[in-house]
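Hey, quick one: can you model this chain's 3D structure?
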Amino acid sequence: MSSKRFLVSWMLFASWALLGGAGLVHCSAAEPREDIPSDAGPNYDPPVPDASGGSSIADSGITDTYEVPDGSVTCDSEPCVVAIAGSYDYDTGMVFCALLKSGSLHCWGSNLVSRLGSSLDEGTYSSVPRRVDALTEVTSVSLAGNNACATTADGGVWCWGDPTLINAGLDLDAGPPTSDSALPTRLDLVPSSSKVTLGGTFDGYSFATACVATDAGTTYCWGNNDTSQLGPRARTGAAPPERLSIDSGSAATIVPSIGRTFAITQSGQLWSWGSGDGRFLLGRDTSEDPDPVPTQVSGLRDVRGITSSRFHSCAIAGKTVECWGSNYLSGLGLGTEDGVDSLPRPTMLASIVQADDEDAGLPRRLDIPLQVSAGEYVTCAVMGSGRVYCWGASGQTEDKSPRRVDGLSEPAVAIVASSATSCALLRSGSVECWGYNAWGALGRGIDDESIEYAPPAPVVFSRD
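Sure thing. Here's the predicted structure for all 464 residues.
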C-alpha cells in the first residue's frame, strides 16, 4: 500500500470510527432543526412552497410548475472556469480537471496512470493546475477509474490514462499505445461528438466505461463491460464503440457510473442497466444482476440529473433530490445512519434548506436543486440559490442529514464531491476546494499532504 493511500485511508477510517466526534469544517455542526418533527423519520416528506411563474414541466398528466435554476457562469475575471470534473480512488488518488472559457483544459492532483494528461512523470502529482498541452478548444471533460476523456470543437474525442479504454476506441492497425499509460490520444473509432462521460468500476483501479453524445443526437459507448454497463452485448474485456438504444427512443443524457449506466430521456424518464450490487443501485428491483437490459426506473419523473457512487445513487427529480441503494454512513440523506437498502425516496434536503431560510429570517421560497454529486460515502447538492449542502461521511465526520457547506466565498453552480476532497465551481468562474490535500488535491500550490481539514479556498490558476 502506497504512503498516500495509507495516509488517506487511515484518516478516513479513523474519523468514521469517531462518528460525530469532530465537527465537519465545511458543514454546519448545528443540532437538528427544531422545526423538523423529531419523529419525522426517513419517510418524512416536508411541505414545499409553491413557485410563482417559471417553466412548466409535465408528465403523466400532472403539471408541476417551477423555475429550473440557471447554472451558467458569469466569468467576472480571467482565467474563467466553465466546467469541472474529478475522480477519486484510494489506490490512484484524487485528480481534478477544469475547463476554461478559452477552451484550454487544466488538471491537478494525482498523476498515477498519467491522468493529468501532461508530461509530468507518471506516478507523481501536481498541487497546481497544469495545462493539458495536447488539447485546444475543449468542449467537455470527464474522469473516472484510471482514465480521462475530453471532446473538442471539431468533434474529436480524446482520452488518456489506462490504454485499455484507448485501444478499444482505436483502429489497432494504426499503432495503439504500448505503455502502461497514455497521453491524450484521439480515438478514430468514436463518432464526432459534443460531450463525453465516463464511469468507473468496483475495484477502482481499472479502465473506464465511456459514452459520447454525437452531433447527430445518437449515443455510442465503449470500454469496460465487466458488469454489463454497455447494455445487452457480450461481456468480454474492453468493447469497441457501439450505438446504444433504449425503448423510449433517444436519451438526452447518458451517465456511466460505478458498474452501471443511467440514461435520462428528453421527457425526464430515468433508465438504468448494469450492476445493482444487490442494493437496488439501479433504482429498481430486478431478478437479474447484473441486468444488461435498459429499463425505466419507475416512480421518478422530471429527472434532470443523476449521480451514482459505489454504494448509493441520487437523482434530481423535479423539485427534490431522491436517493437509493445502501444507507451505510447515512449516504441516502434520510436523517438515519443504518445501512438499510432502499429504492428511490426523497432526502431531507428540502426541509433543511427551508429551515435554514427561516432561521435567517428569509421569506419562504422554492430553492430548486441545480446539481448533485456523489462520492463513495458522501453526497453534495448545489441549490439554485448557490448554496451547497452535503450529507454522509466525508472522512471528517458523518452528517445523517444535509448540512450547509460554510466558507464558500460566493454562490456555486457545480460541485465534484468525494470522501476526501471536494471542489465547487462558483458563479464567477473561480473554483474553491476543501478537505484533504493528499496528492495536492486542494490545487493551491501547497505540497504539504498532511493537511486534513482545510476549509474552502481558491484553486490557483495561472493566466491562460
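One thing worth noting: Residues 1-63 have pLDDT under 50 and may be disordered.
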